[in-house]
C-alpha cells in the first residue's frame, strides 16, 4: 500500500499545538487527502470533532484509512491502536509527530502499510527528522515485502517469505536473487532499478555454489528449477489478457480455456495483472466471474478505442456487425500491453483469448 499519493489519511491532534502541525502538513502535502480531528473544545473550521472520544474515532477510522497520524505523545497513540491490531499485512500505516514538529515516528506497518515511506515524506515536508526502527532499514538492507511492492509482484508464500528473507538479511546471511532471463529478454527487465541492497544477483549456475542461505527467484513462469537451497518465487504481475466471446458463454468453459492457455504458455496465474474486453462485454457474467476468480481489474474499451489498432489483425464481419469493430481480443491485449503480445490468439468454442505482457511494473 502506498500512502503517499492520493490515499485517505486521518490526523488526530490533541492540543492547539497539534493543530498547528496539522495545518503545516496539509499545506505542505496537498496530494494527501487528510481529514483532521480534534477535541470539541479545540474545534476550528477546518477540523472535525472526535466522534464521541478519541478512542472511538480511531477505532472507526482504523479499518477505513490508508494511514493514521497522531500529533502528540507516542504512548497515547500506542494505547489507542493496541486493541485494533491484526497483522502487518493488513493494518494501516501509523505515524506519530511530536507537538514541536521535530520528529516523525513510524509506529506501525512500516513496509506493507507504507509507514516508513510516509514518515520520510511527512518529515521532509515540515523539516522534521524521520524515526524509522524496522530492522532492514536500520541495517541498510532491502526487505522482501518492499521489493515485492516495488516489482508489483506476488508470492504464493508471501508471509513466510517476508519473515524468512528479512530475518536472514538482518542477521548477515547471504541471500541470492535470480532473475529469469526471459524477463530480461522480453521485458527489458532490470533488477538494478529496484532496492536489492544486501542481495547477491546470481545466475542459475551460481545458485548451487557459495554460501547462499536462500534464494529469491524472480520469474513469471510456472515451472521453476529444482533449486538446491530454500527459494521463494516473486512473480511480477505483468500478464494481461484480451477476451472476446459469445454472449452468455459458460463460466466454466471460459475458466477452463483460460487455465489451459496459461499452462500452455507456462505462465504462473499470479502473474496476471488485468483482463480486458470491449465495453459490450462489461457485464458478461463469465468474464466478470473470471476477473473475480483471479482478483484482477476488468478493463473495457469502446469500439472506437479498439479501431485504432484493429487493422493489425484479422477481421470478422460478423464481429463488426455485432460490436462495431472487426476483432476484440487482439486489439484489447495490444492496448493493455502497449503492443507487446505473447503468442498467437487462442480460439475455441466461441472464445478468443490473446495474452500480452506489460513492461511497466504497475498496472493502473
UniProtKB/TrEMBL annotation:
Location of the Cobalamin synthesis G N-terminal domain: 57-137
Pfam hit, one: CbiG_N
Domain CobE/GbiG C-terminal intervals: 239-353
GO molecular function: hydrolase activity
Keywords, in A-Z order: Hydrolase
Protein name: Cobalt-precorrin 5A hydrolase
Organism: Vibrio rhizosphaerae
